[in-house]
Every structure is written in structure tokens, then in C-alpha cells.
């Protein structure tokens, strides 16, 4: 066995969480290595948020131009999303990431290491022939598509595969009805595919406000996407050049490609966690409130691998800030997942922060609900979009904003204003009185609260 390389911190995974903890601890003078099993850069930059948003931006621009064809975008009718060209555009964002991320780590004095890390002992790991001794270890290995325990599950393409398609197949089944299914389905339909979404129960996008999800479902079906509820996939098989998906309720669906949208679970396999005395319960790391392993106090976790908050990039960054602080200053800081804005990038997009009406009512049946349709608002009409709505939850008496839910063209930007107001503890009245640039999506807030 070669001599050990000694580090104050060995980070497993180079995504949003791993990179942030590594750079923060390095700035504090620690010696740091980052071990990455795939390309450096993580899911968000390479296989998630960023590439998806490139496709979304092109698809949304095409849709808007088509919607406005009768109102001055001459020739807009003929526009279509050219998936292959959009794919090349996407590559111009993702291709430089691994080299740039690795170079940035080196420039910061961090040692990037390629390979599969495995614990050898509570304070030691191997990566191939290298042996690393670690005062602290961060597990920031993210998440991967959840295992579906049915025949033919290995035939499912993943969201990674979808975002790498050079050409859109003529038909697609999305198995699952959450974020990935709706986002991929909306892109694929705009690129000309016949799309079906299979959702096991009758609650697609269950984290979001049901009334707005219902409005999005109507709009989704209006695009020609079939959304089959109560369809729990039970078997996938090859059929001709494509695939057939059978559901427990007896229905069967055929498509050229079948894509996994069934949820993701922490990537913990292959790390030899037992050798590191890192406890796992039901597929999740056993962590204390400071994101530290309950069984090995040298080891912390952050982001999707920690699976404490929602599996989102801002949560990974938040966890990273908490963990870096706890490592550097002692365990005093707990993560706070109280105000986490999030958006589903469909067209139109759906966005949310805070409690749904059901959750707010469970805590206080007298919660004030302010809701309405926004399709007639000028900011929506001028985009040609026909589906837009809001629902706001306000605490009776205190006027505190408990939750905000938006569907419409500018929802993902406007939701951030509600998140700021909630974080700052502003009342609904104070937010309604706030001046906003006009005319913008944000200037609708006072009408929504009025
Ligand atoms: C298709 C898709 C779209 C998404 N869109 C959004 C969005 O719009 N907004 C949003 O907020 N969130 C989005 N997410 C979620 C977001 O990408 C994740 O929450 C975020 O990337 C988590 O960051 P992380 O650092 O915890 O993990 P990751 O970014 O996944 O990083 C983990 C890293 O660890 C590496 N790794 C894995 N196993 C090992 C191992 N054994 N050894 C060493 N390294 C390993 C991986 O290769 C990866 O580089 C999306 C996710 C997907 C899949
Ligand atoms: N815009 C974003 O922020 C964004 C985009 C993509 C992914 N993500 C993150 O990644 C995570 C994973 O995304 P996802 O869409 O895979 O998961 P998800 O949890 O959002 O949705 C999974 C869906 O699959 C359904 N399902 C489960 N088993 C099924 C079965 N056998 N048959 C049919 N349906 C079944 C579930 O009921 C659920 O609706 C998300 O929860 C989110 O945290 C975020």
C-alpha cells in the first residue's frame, strides 16, 4: 500500500454542495481534496438545471413567437423547436464545465482526484492506488434515479439520456409524474414527440398546490400530452423498435423511448460506508441535526446525498454553507428549510414557496386564501399564454405570508419576491404596499394581494 496523502478534508463529489464546502474550507487554510467518479461539475451544471434551462429557453421563445404570430410576429406560425440545434447550443454550456471546474479547484489550491473513492477506515479512503487520510470527509455524491423493482426497469432511459438526445424520438413515455416527467414532457412535445406521462396515483407534482397543478394539467393535455393518472408501471418490455409499459391497472402504453421520472435516491453505493463506520438507515445516511454522521463524527453530508431538505440546488448550497461552518467552527448551525422556492420549468412554469393550502389549513383552519386567474392580466396576455393563476396563503391576524403559488410566464422570477418577503417576515399588507418596477411580473403582486 502506498503512503497516505494527508488532508484536512476529503470531499466526495464535485457538485454544488461538494464544491462549495471544498472552497470554503480551503479559504480557511485547510488542505482539501475533491474526489469525483464522473466528470467534474455535478448534476446541476452538467445533467440537470442548467442544460434543462437552455432547452426550456429555446422552447419558450419558440412558443411565445408562435403565440404572438397573429399579433405581429410575422411568420411565427411556421416556427418550431429544432432539438438538434438546441442540443448543440446546450453543449456549448455543458462541455466546458468539467475542465473549468477542475481548473478552478486547482487554482484555489484544492487537489482534484478522478476515480471511485472507498472508505478503508473511519479516517481513510482509497481511490484506485491512492490512499487518502482525512481529518474530515464530506459525502456530497448527490442522487441517482431510484431503483424501480419491476421487470424491465433496466430499459428505462434516464433524464441524463434525455438531455443528451441528438434527435427527439417520435414518441415518449415518461414513467412518473413529478418534476422530471413534466419538464421533459413539455420539451419533448414542443420538439414534436407524442408524449404520455404515467403517474402512479392521482397526485402528479404532489409537492405543488393542487389547484394550480390542475390548471397546468389542463394546459399540458391541451398540448396533446396524455397524462394517465392511477397508472403504476408494473412491467417494461421491448416491442418492435420501441418499448411497451404495462401498468397495474391493466393499461399498456407504447413508445420509442421510455424515460425514468420516478424520483431519485442518494448515491451511496460503492463508497464502502461500513468500512468508514458511516451508518445508513433505509438507504439514507444517518445524520444528526448538524448534517454530521451519527456514527462517525469526522463525516458530514450535504445536498442530495444528505437528503434532509428537498433535492434542489439552492438546498445543496445551503447545506454546504451549514456544513462548512460546522466543520470550521464546531457544530452549532442547523439547516433551515423553511423558505425554499422552487419551480417546475414547464411552459408555462409553475412555482411555489412555503405551505400549500392543505398544509396551512391543517395548522390553522382560518387561514386566508387569496387566489385568482391571471390569464387576463396584461403581463400574461401580451405573451400569448392562456394559463396563469395564483394562490396566496396569509395567516389571519398577523398577516404573515405562509405560502405563495404561481402559474404563468414569469412565475419562477416572481416567486423569489415572495421568498424574500417570507424570509424577511413581511406581512401581506407591507408587501402589497412595496413599490415595484412597472409593468413587470412583480408589479402584479399588489393586485394579487389587494
Ligand atoms: C434533470 C434534472 C433537472 C434538475 N433541475 C433542477 C432545477 O431546475 N432547479 C433545482 O434547484 N434543482 C434541479 N435539479 C436538482 C439538482 O440538480 C440537485 O438537487 C443538485 O444538483 C444537487 O447537488 P449536489 O451537489 O448535492 O449533488 P450533485 O450535483 O449530483 O453532485 C454529486 C457529484 O458526486 C458525484 N458522485 C456520485 N457518486 C460518487 C461516488 N461514489 N464517488 C465520487 N463521486 C460521486 C457525481 O458524479 C456528481 O458529480 C435537477 C435534477 C435533475 C436530475
Ligand atoms: N425544476 C426543478 O427544480 C427540478 C427538476 C428536476 C428534478 N428536480 C429534483 O429531482 C428530484 C427527482 O425528480 P423526479 O421527477 O424523478 O421525482 P419526483 O419525486 O418529483 O416525482 C416522482 C413521481 O413519480 C411517481 N411515481 C413513483 N413510482 C411510480 C410508478 N411505479 N409508476 C408511476 N409513477 C410513479 C411519484 O408519485 C411522483 O409523482 C425532484 O424531486 C426534485 O427535487 C428538480
Automatic annotation (TrEMBL):
It comes from Teichococcus aestuarii. FAD binds at residues 53, 304. NAD(+) binds at residues 176-183, 263. GO terms for molecular function: nucleotide binding; oxidoreductase activity. Pfam families: Pyr_redox_2, Pyr_redox_dim. Belongs to the class-I pyridine nucleotide-disulfide oxidoreductase family. Disulfide bonds join 44-49. This is Pyridine nucleotide-disulfide oxidoreductase. Residues 7-319 form the FAD/NAD(P)-binding domain. Binds 1 FAD per subunit. Residues 340-443 form the Pyridine nucleotide-disulphide oxidoreductase dimerisation domain. InterPro entries: FAD/NAD-bd_sf, FAD/NAD-binding_dom, FAD/NAD-linked_Rdtase_dimer_sf, Pyr_nuc-diS_OxRdtase, Pyr_nucl-diS_OxRdtase_dimer.
Amino acid at each position: 500500500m502506498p503512503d497516505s496523502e494527508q488532508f484536512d478534508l476529503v470531499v466526495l463529489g464535485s457538485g454544488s454542495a461538494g464544491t462549495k464546502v471544498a472552497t470554503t474550507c480551503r479559504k480557511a487554510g485547510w488542505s482539501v481534496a475533491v474526489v469525483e467518479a464522473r466528470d467534474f461539475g455535478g448534476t446541476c451544471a452538467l445533467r440537470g438545471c442548467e442544460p434543462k434551462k437552455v432547452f426550456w429557453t429555446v422552447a419558450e421563445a419558440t412558443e411565445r413567437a408562435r403565440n404572438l404570430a397573429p399579433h405581429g410576429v410575422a411568420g411565427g406560425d411556421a416556427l418550431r423547436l429544432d432539438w438538434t440545434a438546441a442540443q448543440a447550443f446546450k453543449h456549448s454550456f455543458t462541455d466546458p464545465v468539467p475542465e473549468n471546474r477542475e481548473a478552478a479547484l486547482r487554482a484555489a489550491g484544492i487537489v482534484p482526484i478522478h476515480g471511485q473513492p472507498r472508505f478503508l477506515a473511519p479516517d481513510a479512503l482509497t481511490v484506485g492506488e491512492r490512499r487518502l487520510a482525512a481529518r474530515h470527509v464530506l459525502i456530497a455524491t448527490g442522487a441517482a434515479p431510484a431503483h424501480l423493482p419491476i421487470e424491465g426497469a433496466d430499459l428505462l432511459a434516464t433524464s441524463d439520456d434525455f438531455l443528451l438526445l441528438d434527435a427527439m424520438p417520435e414518441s415518449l413515455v415518461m414513467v412518473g409524474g413529478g418534476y422530471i416527467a413534466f419538464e421533459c414532457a413539455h420539451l419533448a412535445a414542443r420538439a414534436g414527440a407524442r408524449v404520455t406521462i404515467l403517474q402512479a396515483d392521482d397526485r402528479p407534482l404532489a409537492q405543488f398546490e393542487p389547484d394550480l397543478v390542475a390548471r397546468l394539467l389542463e394546459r399540458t393535455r391541451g398540448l396533446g400530452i396524455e397524462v394517465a393518472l392511477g397508472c403504476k408501471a408494473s412491467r417494461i418490455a421491448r416491442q418492435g423498435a420501441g418499448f411497451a409499459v404495462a401498468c397495474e391497472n391493466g393499461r399498456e402504453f407504447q413508445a420509442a423511448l421510455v424515460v425514468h421520472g420516478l424520483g431519485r435516491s442518494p448515491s451511496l453505493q460503492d463508497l464502502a460506508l461500513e468500512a468508514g463506520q458511516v451508518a445508513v438507515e433505509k438507504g439514507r445516511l444517518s445524520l444528526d441535526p448538524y448534517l454530521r454522521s451519527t456514527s462517525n463524527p469526522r463525516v458530514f453530508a450535504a445536498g442530495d446525498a444528505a437528503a434532509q431538505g428537498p433535492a434542489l440546488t439552492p438546498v445543496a448550497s445551503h447545506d454546504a454553507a451549514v456544513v462548512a461552518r460546522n466543520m470550521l467552527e464546531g457544530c452549532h448551525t442547523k439547516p433551515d428549510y423553511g423558505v425554499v422556492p422552487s419551480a417546475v420549468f414547464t411552459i408555462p412554469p409553475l412555482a411555489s414557496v412555503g405551505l400549500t393550502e392543505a398544509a396551512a389549513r391543517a395548522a390553522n383552519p382560518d387561514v386566508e386564501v387569496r387566489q385568482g386567474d391571471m390569464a387576463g392580466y396584461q403581463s400574461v396576455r401580451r405573451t400569448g399564454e392562456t394559463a396563469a393563476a395564483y394562490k396566496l396563503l396569509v395567516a389571519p391576524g398577523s398577516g404573515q405570508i405562509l405560502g405563495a403559488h404561481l402559474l404563468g410566464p414569469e412565475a419562477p422570477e416572481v416567486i423569489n419576491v415572495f421568498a424574500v418577503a417570507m424570509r424577511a417576515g413581511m406581512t401581506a399588507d407591507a408587501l402589497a404596499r412595496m413599490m415595484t418596477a412597472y409593468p413587470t411580473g412583480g408589479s402584479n403582486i399588489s393586485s394579487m394581494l389587494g
